[in-house]
TrEMBL record:
The keyword Ligase does not apply. This is UDP-Rha/UDP-Gal transporter 5. It is a multi-pass membrane protein. The chain crosses the membrane at residues 12-31, 43-66, 78-96, 133-150, 156-174, 186-207, 219-241, 253-275, 281-300. Residues 23-297 form the Sugar phosphate transporter domain. Keywords: Membrane, Transmembrane, Transmembrane helix. It is found in: Membrane.
Amino acid sequence: MAPTNKADRKAVVDASAWMFNVVTSVGIIMVNKALMATYGFSFATTLTGLHFATTTLMTAVLRWLGYIQPSHLPLGELLKFVLFANFSIVGMNVSLMWNSVGFYQIAKLSMIPVSCFLEVVMDKIRYSRDTKLSIALVLVGVGVCTVTDVSVNTKGFVAAFIAVWSTSLQQYYVHHLQRRYNLSSFNLLGHTAPAQAGTLLLLGPFLDYWLTSKRVDAYSYNLVSIMFIILSCTIAVGTNLSQFICIGRFTAVSFQVLGHMKTILVLIMGFFFFGKEGLNLHVVLGMIIAVAGMIWYGNASSKPGGKERRSLSLPTTRQQKPGSLSDSNEHDAKL
């Protein structure tokens, strides 16, 4: 009876983690869309720096209250993670500026096969035929409902290439660092958020000026826009935490595949709140295909042999207490 109860508890926690991520991710996209489109706050990199500054404040308060225990992350690993994470943020912003919306969406979709490649090479993951086909179906579905005009130029391709690989590496390292150094999601955020906040707030205003030809200090702030910025930063705490929780409990590939449910929800909410232009049978068909692929992936990857390691031995730098097991390590044998 105990294993069943444990499995049920795990399923509830997994579902709650995904729901937490979906709600906060969709929420922050809608808030940021209103902030940028309606109130003209187009300083995306600086805003991201504010997000991580707020997250840093949250982790500091939790550490002071004793909810986050002291932990260690080597400086080299921290610098590597921050490099990947910041290149991901900057690369995505530049890719969106230099590429058509269609090619930008294709670049985002390519993160799934890149993440698969990283897991196969770095973690010796093996995928079943059904798992591979389900991933392909998700790619087709999301592509059908999001990719429209596609035009490519050299500098745009380079920006997209950097964005895709840095994002995939950053998400891979979220799972890798939690597993290798036995870090909780809060612990890892406590290490990475201050470094990201500092670098993005330092470089963000200059990068935003280069991208938009506007200065963040010259923006006409008012009560409503400030309230939206505060709301965006507040939701971002949940978004950052839920991302680390989900990738820590699962993998970057699962996060990418099932995470496209957020893309579908953003499209639906965009049509609902900002007008129904672009909503047609073509888009609806793509959504149905994508959701079917996600359901298939969840079923295929959870079956024995659907997605598993070739070797169960993992390097760790810290011994765990007897009887304790981190959430992420529960999934090392079957992911």
